[in-house]
Every structure is written in structure tokens, then in C-alpha cells.
Amino acid sequence: MQHDISKLMTGQWSTRKKENDVKEATKLPLLLSQAMEGRPITSRSEFLALPPEILTEIMALIANDKAALSTLALVNSDCRQLARSYQFVEVCFDYGPRSRKLLQRLVDEAQIRADAASGTPAPLFIGSCIRQVKVQPEPRHVAAAHKDLWAASSGDPNCILSQQQMDELRNNAAYKYLIKYRQPILKVLAEAMPHLDSLSWNDEMCLDIEAMRTLARLPLQNLEFSEAFVGVPFSLESPLVSHATKLQSLSLGISSCKEAMHAEGKPKKSKKLSSLISRFLQHNCESLESLTIKSSGKKAEKFRGHEAMSFPRLRYLDLASGTSYPDLAAWSSFLSAPLRHLSLPLNGLNTSKQYMADCPTFHDLETLVVPSLSMDMELAKPIADFVLQHSHVGKLSVQNSTPYLLDQHILPALASEQWSNLTSLSISWRYLANITSSDTQQTYTHIAAESLAAIARIKTLEQLCLSAGEAIDEAAGWRQFWLPDHDDLRLRLQGLDNLQKLAFSRDTYKIPDEIPFRDIESYYDDRWVTQAEFDDALSLPHFGPANQGRLRLRQRHGARAADSVDDDDVDDYGFEREDYEINVHVDVGNFAPNDKVWERAHLYRMLKEAEQYAMVLPNLKWVFCGQRPMSVEATAGSEEKIFKATPLTNERDTIGKILAPIFEMNGGN
């Protein structure tokens, strides 16, 4: 029985790059001499004869211009290889037609390389130019390639199969996936990319020992596993690799595969992963500068150190993404490293007293992240003490904390002169839902005035993120019932003259017309439209150099408007090119869902809030409010400063993805 490939068809079907993606790969193309793999440059062009550093600066000007690179590639073979070194510096195998075509080209190149070893002349290769590879099957491409399985799995009434037929369909699809996609990828990674130094493996299909051995033996500097699974207990034998190159950055997002073929004789999960993780760490501990250990599954899986290790170069350690504390041997090894950026584990905090008691002070620490302080005081106190002994850090994040610890212990200490290096602060209060607004009879939370006063005394702050709410569970996330009083917040924070970035997370808002039966937690979900939404949607100005069109909000009086719609009408805020028909003259009680109008109205209000913050915070340049990241700048040419906020994305960042690399760990970069 094969693994079920239909799980790769689920998830969000993207048709373009998301604006909210915050982590961009750093493209560092090879020098032309490297891309040529020792072959001489035959062209007499003075352009190619320029010193490498000057040629690199010139190429940087057209690095993202696909048309210019395509034109350059047509000049001659040397220019083609130069263009390729920018076109193919980073590739993604997403199971789509284009990536499968590239994959076949690289398979052919691997065979040519093998033949060239026996003396056959070899051409210039695309694989020579590749430095970064991402393996991330796109759900829509997997579904398109296996239409029968997609139809049967998605409940198509025209495709009802027996269990035996479904099993055959799954097995055939998985076989094709592994034979025609994964195995060729493993082959070209090992045989067709001599300059590959970074690999991101985000493929949920279970990895067997041969696949893991191939990946572990690649001469990489950076290796990331995300949503990866292993199904049988195995260890990577020593020596792990035959080359001298060792990893500088390692992210282990690996969990146990739960599919049925692993059910019999299955060992304990912790034992299954422990040996695998230990082998990676033991082989690379001397060279690692950045280490992230996380779980791909819903539950954390413990890992064990087995033996003490030395991490003399480790500066970045992120244990926050769903892992438990390691055993004491591994924990002690981590504590001996010269860490500069540290995120404590999210789970396993029931043992925090034992682990934190003997923690040293990391004198070079710059970033400290505590994912959760929501626990009994006996367990939370050692972690809070650990935070307070690092008054020299520049970036601090304390999340999901009880108000008592923050209000009475941590924030008063941060406001003292000892924390003179603190430039970035992210704080999240975990409140119980027991405070009621008398006028609406709805539950909400607030941040104590004393805590805001303490924050306002931290004059060194350049960026600040505030959040409040109640965590339900890992799957449901956070309840959003923090109603920020922005007028009051502006009054209390206005002394932070160095503040450049300000963020509010888990904030929610009342519907302006105050429909009485609506829960404030459903503000973002319901998106109810009333007269106030229509008015604010119409108030949103049109601007932006890329789009000179405008959104038509047609007014009607009892009859459907019959205006013609020009195809060129576009909206400058990311809304689709279409004509909206709304009733501007609607009775206040006549409300109805209308996502597009609601989004415009919500954005308009958040832009206005950002502009008002800029009026009291003189250096403010960036605001995240109402799930919208915005830039703020003063309008040029006016005697009195007038601020203008601009949305930075075309849609709301509903989970605050953009905030983590700014206010917490930044991925080791």
C-alpha cells in the first residue's frame, strides 16, 4: 500500500505569489566563471571582460527583468550562461508543467555529466547556475496531474468508487508521484547541481531512508525541512556524508507519519525521531550557526540528545514552533553555545522549573522570545526570572502571558534604566473572558493603564507590538476580543519619539452602526455592511502609480443601474477589476454581507488610525492595525505636517504572519 497523495491536493490553491509572504529568498547568483564550470569565455565582448564586481553591479540592475535577461541570453553562449545564472539561481519544483519540464532537462543534464566523465564533450548546463532549490508541490498542480483521484477524493457525485477502486487509484497516483517526480528530484539534486548550497524541502509525502540519506549527503550550507514526515525508525549511519562541507543553517520540521502502513510494530514517536535528529546534530554541531527544531504535526514530539554535543558557532536557536523541551543532555549542549538569538520552546513547559533553574546568562544575547507564559506561577517564575536577567537584549518578545506577570513584574523592570538597549518589544496579554462592556453586554479585554505607562517610559523603543486575547487551543487559535481604544493609546504612547514601527495584533472592532446581536469576535468573519460601511468605502481615495483607474461605486434608487463597465477600470487597493453595485441610500437597518465593500471600508478606517498615530509619534513609518500593514509618511510641500498612510499588501494578514520576523525570530537571516 502506498501513501495517500490526495493530502497534497488540500490547502490553499494559489495562482500567484502572495503579497503577504514576508520571507524572500536572498538571491546571490554565481560569478560567470563559476557558472561556466571552468570553461573559457570565448566571446570578445568588452561587457563580459569587465571585472567581476562591476559586471555583478550591472547585472543587478536587470536581475528581476525577465525580458532583459531573455534578450541577453540570445546574444551568444557566454551571455546565455550569464543570463541563466540569474534566471535559475533559485528554482522551485511545484509539480507544475513548467517545473516538471525543467526537472526533465536537469535529468538529461545529469546523464550528460555522467557520459562526460568518460570523455564525451559537455555543453553548458542550467544546473550549474542553481544555488537554491525549494521542493513544494502546489495543490492545484497535484490535483491537475491526478484528476481522477482529485474527483474521487473531493466528493464528485459523478465519480463514486468502491474502496478497492479508491485504493488502486491512490496507489497508482503515489507510485507516479514518487517515480516520476521525487526520484528524479533526488537524482538531480545529487548529480546535476554542483553549486547547490540551499535546499528547502516542503513535501508532506513520507521520506524513506534512501531519500533521507540522499538529502543528508548533499554538500549544502542551508537545509530546511518543513512539513516533512518519516514513517519508519531509522538512523543515518556514520559517517553521514563523504564530503567536508557541513551545514551552517538547519531547520528540522520533521514529524512521524501517521498513515496506516506504519501502524504495525510502530515504536514510540520520540524514539523514532530522536536518532534521526541526533545524527543531524552530531554531524553538524561544530559548524551550525543557526538551528530551528519544530514539529510538522499537531502535537510536539520530544527529542533526545543521547550524548553531549558542542555548538561553538551556534548563534541562532529557535525551539518555539511546536516542540517540547529536549532532554537535559541536549538542553545542556544548547546552553553552552554562544547564543545571540534564542526562542524558548512553546510546549513542554510543565518541566520549565527543572530546565530554567540552572540556565546561564547569555551575555551576547540580542533577541529573546518567550512563546508562552500562561501557566502556574511556580512554573512561570523561573522563565520570567530568566527574561529579567537579560536586560542587555535589544529585542524581546513575551507572548501569551498572564496579566499579573507582565503588569507586576516584567514591564516595571523593562521601564528601568537597566534595559537601555531595548529597541524592540512585543507583548501579549492572555486575559480570561470575564470583563463586560456595560453598553453592549459583550465580552472584551483591555490593557492596564499602568502597563501602558511603563511601556511609554522605554524611550529607546523603535518598534512595538501590543496584543491581548484569550487562547482557546492550538487548533482554534486566539479569540479576538481586544477592542483597542486608539485615542487613549495615542495619548499614552505619544512620548515614544524613537518609535518607527507600531503593531496591534488580535485587535477587533465594533460595527459602526452597532447591530445589537453581533459578537465583536465575528467582526472579521461576518463583514456586515451598513450605511456606515458604504460611506467609508466611498471615502477611500484612489492613488498609486501602477493603477490609474478607479473603482465605480454605483448609486441606485430602487432600480438596477445600467451603466456600462470599462474593462480598464481597476482599483488601487488590490480589489478585483469589476464594477460594484451597492445601494448607498440604504436604510441603516437594511444590512447585508458584502465582502468587497466591507474590506474597503475597513481599510479606510485603519489608514485613518495610522495617520493619527503618525501625528503623535514623530518617527513613525510603519503601522500594523486591523490586520493591515501600512506605511506612513508626511506629505511633501505643506507647512503643517499632513500624514498619508498607504497599504502595503492587497489583502489582510489574518494570522499576523508578517509580524514574527519583525518582532520575534527572523529565520536566522
Describe this structure in words.
There is one protein chain. By secondary structure, this protein is of the alpha/beta class. Among the domains are: 134 residues, no CATH class; 250 residues. The protein is built from 20 helices and 21 strands. It has a 17-stranded mixed beta sheet that branches. The protein has a two-stranded antiparallel sheet with strand order 15-18. A two-stranded parallel ribbon has the order 16-17. Strand 1, helix 5 and strand 2 form a beta-alpha-beta unit. The longest helix is centred in the first third of the chain and has 29 residues. The radius of gyration is 28 Å and the shape is globular. The two termini are 41 Å apart.
Quick rundown:
This protein is α/β, with parallel strands linked by helices.
Percent helix, as a range, is 25-40%
Shape: globular
How widely separated are the two ends?
Answer: 41 Å
The proportion of strand residues reads 15-25%
Number of helices: 20
Spans of at least 5 consecutive residues whose pLDDT stays below 50 are 15-26, 264-270, 434-442, 473-477, 543-592
What's the total count of β strands? 21
Helices and strands: which structural class? alpha/beta
**Main sheet overview:** 17 strands, mixed
What is the radius of gyration computed over CA atoms, rounded to a whole number of angstroms?
Answer: 28 Å
Mean pLDDT: 80
